[in-house]
Design brief:
This protein is an alpha/beta fold. Helix content is 39%, strand content 20%. It folds into 2 domains: 4-162 and 305-380, Response regulator (Rossmann fold); 165-294 and 382-418, Rossmann fold. 52% of the residues are buried.
């Protein structure tokens, strides 16, 4: 484990106290921090994605602490982010969860694997029932398997990303309107999320464009394929005009690079092609042909959005660290506000404060809002479909990761346009 974030947040608390003294306030002993355990693959094949999440959450924590932390009944407390490396393995993630619970950490964050998220939900359900005085909450920023807020929903789990069906609704609307696409190839990672994406993509496309032919539908091992050229050759041979995938991390980067190298002239409809090396890997072949869906993109426009993005880049100036998501900031902001409404770190009180909570525009300069739906704990927020273009062209002021390519907004959908019904039957304490 690495404890740099823990030490940083303690130093930040001391710096805050020193600032108050400097302004004539009476120095007070530092309050116990409110700890958030980040359980993520910080080593292994998806370490780049884990470290990118860490930077986002660290910055969000810093922003809350810079304004004084969170005010509970006994005064202001800083937030503290604790790194716990799951190595991209579900069993290791559960071990890290046990370690966090043993340290009486109440708030656990994870997202880069829906299979791992489902295991954490189940483990927390059991733990919270057995030990009601040591309950904890799970804050999910990117595990998007739809089941997690449907048949596998839990009072102890809150999701701040749009789930797979919400993202697919936005992507398949864009595909529906592209008359040039007649043949589609579906490919994804072989686990719960990847399976759900392919199943639902087929159903949504058939409903919206019954004329489209599916010329491929396959799953591949997650995180273990080093050479995607055989898959790229099949995509090229299929005659597909479009590929739809939920791949993320290196599985996405290697796939698009292989398809580019194979010379397959396809459009990519993706969840995550706008970051983590994918734009540079795609290169010129992606201009006007690679789409992604997210809750926000740097080229959304407007002073609030621009200020938000530029502040992140100032904090992390290395182009390789250029990975920022509004949903991760939303999660920490909404947690901070729920803590203050509850006045305590008690898991039940904070959960009830989160239910139905609205994120106003304050931390985002007016460009991002949302509501935590109480029925299933699924955050409802806008979604943006964007197209890869060269930086400097119309609508592309900012590039991604210094690649020279950015993403132009094609359409922005209001929460009501992507909201999906839920089958959640939640047991409440």
């Amino acid at each position: 484990m690495r404890w740099s974030a823990l030490r940083f947040c303690r130093l930040a608390g001391l710096a805050l106290a020193a600032t108050l003294v400097g302004h004539g306030a009476v120095a007070q002993p530092a309050k116990e921090p409110v700890r958030i355990a980040l359980i993520e693959g910080l080593s292994g094949p998806f370490a780049n994605a884990g470290e990118a999440v860490f930077r986002n959450l660290l910055w969000a924590v810093e922003r809350v602490n810079a304004r004084g932390g969170v005010r509970l009944q006994d005064g202001a407390h800083p937030l503290e982010l604790v790194r716990l490396d799951s190595k991209g393995n579900t069993e290791e993630a559960l071990a890290m969860l046990r370690a966090a619970l043993d340290r009486r950490i109440v708030f656990v964050a994870q997202g880069n694997s829906s299979a791992t998220a489902a295991a954490i939900v189940a483990a927390l359900d059991r733990h919270n029932e057995r030990e009601p005085t040591r309950r904890a909450l799970f804050l999910n920023y990117s595990a998007v398997d739809t089941a997690l807020t449907n048949e596998k929903c839990s009072f102890w789990h809150f999701r701040f990303d749009a789930h797979a069906d919400m993202r697919l609704a936005a992507l398949t609307d864009a595909l529906r309107d592209d008359a040039s696409v007649k043949k589609v190839y579906l490919i994804g990672q072989d686990y719960s999320f990847g399976q759900q994406v392919l199943k639902q993509a087929r159903a949504m496309i058939q409903a919206k464009r019954p004329d489209i032919e599916f010329v491929g539908d396959e799953l591949h091992p997650m995180g273990r394929v080093k050479d995607f050229l055989p898959y790229a050759a099949k995509i090229r041979a299929s005659g597909a005009q479009a590929v739809l995938t939920g791949n993320w991390g290196n599985d996405l980067t290697l796939l698009v690079k292989a398809v580019r190298d194979a010379g397959a002239p396809v459009k990519f409809y993706t969840f995550y092609a706008n970051a983590l090396g994918a734009p540079a890997a795609i290169g010129d072949a992606g201009v006007g042909s690679v789409l992604a869906v997210a809750e926000w993109v740097p080229n959304l426009g407007g002073a609030g959005s621009d200020d938000f993005y530029q502040a992140f880049r100032q904090r992390f100036p290395d182009p390789r660290d250029d990975y920022v998501h509004a949903r991760m900031q939303s999660m920490i902001e909404m947690l901070a506000r729920a803590l203050e409404r509850a006045g305590t770190v008690d898991a039940v009180a904070v959960a009830r404060a989160l239910e139905g909570a609205k994120l106003d525009s304050q931390p985002f300069g007016g460009f991002h809002t949302g509501t935590m739906r109480a029925a299933d704990h699924q955050f409802q927020q806008p979604l943006v479909v964007s197209m890869m273009e060269k930086a400097g062209t119309s609508g592309v002021r900012f590039d991604v990761e210094g690649s020279g390519y950015g993403f132009r907004v094609v359409r922005r959908l209001a929460p009501s346009e992507v909201e999906q019904p839920t089958t959640c039957q939640m047991a409440r304490p």
